[in-house]
Amino acid sequence: MRTIYEPSGKAREYSPLALNIYLGCDHGCVYCYARDNKRGGAEGPVKARAGLVAALELELQKRVVTQQVLLCFTCDPYPMAPEYHLTHDVLKVLLAHKVPTAILTKGGARCHADLALFKRYGVQGVPLKVGASLTLFDAEASARLEPGAALPDERLATLEMLHEAGVRTWVSFEPVVDPEQTLDLMAAATPWVDEYKIGKLNHDPAAEAAIDWGAFGRRAVLLARKLGKRFYVKEDLRKAMGGRKEVDDVELTAAETDQDALTLRSAECGVRSAEMGNAECGVRNAETEKEGPGGQLSLF
Q1: In this structure, what DSSP letter does residue 151 have?
Q2: Which of 13, 193, 252, 280 has the maximum number of C-beta atoms within 10 A of its C-beta?
Q3: b/e for 143-168, b at 16 or more Cβ within 10 A?
Q4: pLDDT digits (tens, 9 = 90+) for 48-78
Q5: CATH code that applies to domain 9-288
Q6: Rounded distance, CA 161 to CA 163, Å?
Q7: pLDDT in tens, 174-231
Q8: Domains of the chain: which residue ranges?
């Protein structure tokens, strides 16, 4: 059984390594690139990959993984289905082997149950970040286009909760269905998010053609800089920005175009170290751990 693998193409812009926990997805997003490849979807059940945890443990006993592993690409680590407890078991194995872990979900509050485990990453000095895909601000449009996902306000509230708990947070702004809503979401998420990945819409030529990607890219870059966020602009959006007269005054930096600039590495801490007063995981993590459990990328 394949557990951790190396993504390629556009997926590689998110992480050097990845792990898919489930078969299928119950979010039913109409814009999803992997929709035809899934065994789930809005009408179908999500299935846990039988034997995954044991296979992952065996693999990590045989090799040391120091690169970031992303959960997940062709499924959401926190689906509606009750099998989502498998994510908790996978996280425990990754933590035990000190594997840098990035999570991307549209599940909103479904990840709250793992908050205590997220904190343990920080206590043990293992890099972790938890992110959300934000596509639409309008709840009605979100319910129509991504019916199984948590509503936008719930995803934002979850990012706030994670941030307040000291967990490193991030957002994937992809696909961009409505540029104005994406820009509004960037501003709204600012207080609780550490970094952004910014893309565009793909796999829908008619809808893509109706959007001025040069203008959107320029506005998104200038806004992210104004907000003081670390961010990465995906290659598709960079290509759409290139050669457009209205973006001539925006020159992207090396960090803004380096797909690994935001990637976790083994030497980093899973909880934001800037708030702890030293460069290592330490006092703040130990204090949050004593509190006990808190309330509580397809790409999700």
Answers
A1: P
A2: 193
A3: eebbebbbbbebbbebbebbbebbbb
A4: 899 999 999 999 999 999 999 999 988 899 9
A5: 3.20.20.70
A6: 5
A7: 999 999 999 999 999 999 999 999 999 988 899 999 999 999 999 999 999 999 999 9
A8: 9-288
